[in-house]
Amino acid sequence: MLNKHLFVMAKITPKAAFFEAAKIALLSLVGATRNEVDCIQFEIHVSPCGQFIYLYEEWTDQAALNNHHQEKQTKAVAQKIEHWLAAPTEVALMNKLEQSAQSPRQPHFANA
């Protein structure tokens, strides 16, 4: 059974010279984005190697994500960081699989 919420994982690869600026720009979105009515979760992570920034998001549906991309502050940050990228942003859209009440539970296999 699929959860109807839309999950987003985006991998952003800024040029080394713009990594800190990209982090600051993306962090500026956190408060406003989390306050959007259909935003359930909006998190920013960095890789241990310091080369990648990951966005992890959960929205009520695709329309909510589309609305987020039309927000003034989202557009401004997207336009700013597009010139700082070393590679195109990789985006995965997902729906969460959930076990239904009728489905039998799968056995848990411990590592031997």
From TrEMBL:
Record-level Gene Ontology MF annotations: monooxygenase activity
Keywords: Monooxygenase, Oxidoreductase
Database matches in Gene3D superfamilies: 3.30.70.100
Matching InterPro entries: ABM_dom (IPR007138), Dimeric_a/b-barrel (IPR011008)
Pfam entry (one): ABM
Superkingdom of this protein's organism: Bacteria
Ranges where the ABM domain occurs: 6-94
Protein name, entry field: Antibiotic biosynthesis monooxygenase
Lineage: Bacteria, Pseudomonadati, Pseudomonadota, Gammaproteobacteria, Celerinatantimonadaceae
